[in-house]
Amino acid sequence: MAGHRRSSASRARILVRRVHLWLGLSLGLLFAVFGLTGSALVFYTGIDAALHPAIRAGQGDLAPGLTAPARDRALATGRTRWHDPDGRWTFEITGEGGAIPARYYPAPGHHGDREMVWFSADGTRIIRAEPWGGYLMSWLYQLHMQLLAGEVGGQVVGWSGMAMLVLLVSGMAAWWPRGRWRKALAFKRDAAPLRRLRDLHKLSGLWSMLLLFVLVATGGLLALPAVTQALLAPAPVPAPKSVDDGAGRITIARALVVAQRALPEGRIVFVDVPMAREGAIRVRVQVPGDPHRRFPASYVFIDRSSGRVLAVHDVRQAGPGAAVARWIRTLHDGTIGGMATRILAVVLGFVPALLFATGVLHWWRRRRMAGAG
């Protein structure tokens, strides 16, 4: 009976190793691409600014206040170039001086993707405008999130991420020692090259296993928002509409003041300004307890004509699903612990490439040795 159990355990271990090998050979290169592009994207705004010095000019100047007219001037400047009456503008509130970053989204059904636009500090000039995906860092972002293939690519990224979780778990199961742990965790410097490759692959995977699992799992959930919605069931974000009473439209400056009053303890990060008559202004706010500084999950919706608050989505009151969901992005991009964890995320991004290279070399050398024998 004991011999039968040992035989079953051996067959199970062989099967696990084969699964790990097949997944590694089929998904390893994709895993490496995700890791390397993810490393670059941890600091993608800083890298992009370094590549385009014009948008960094004046960053050390005093940041414009909420009531500053520069964003309204920028909106008027942008509308002279992009005329779609159903388009939408998004302005980022960086808390810094210098260029005003914005995004222009054409109406659904129109040709072209969003346009990334940077206005001069006074809002009177466009100093840079490029389509999303048309410059290096945005191209890397689309490669990382969608493999440059739109929604279909996003599905591939998400589900391949789930398969990569199996790859990681199978690697741990294939390694799990049956004898002494000290021996299993050792790196034998004086061993044959094939053994050193195996040890390097093994130890790289072991020491990064938990963090890689978190990065891969959160990346899969980001790429599969419908799955995330089904698993966590966070309270939906409202989508109220404005009432066009012919009384004109309020300024961005006024909308920001109204939003600040609605969530006085929050920090305003983005303001969305739709051009359509029924579109409500949406102000994105980071409230205390929301971990992501750049993409927080609370919103204030404001009527375009009256300036009345139409709805407030406070993530703190959106249920446990929303409480979990708000940590997904900050865990994935390394911002959870500030600069230290961002640097760690950069380093971890190189590990999948190392695992793929050592795994393929080990497999190839074993095949050569088996063929020679």
Automatic annotation (TrEMBL):
Keyword entries, A-Z: Membrane, Transmembrane, Transmembrane helix
Source species, domain of life: Bacteria
InterPro entries: PepSY-ass_TM (IPR005625)
Transmembrane portions of the chain: 21-44, 156-176, 205-227, 343-364
Name of the protein in its database record: PepSY domain-containing protein
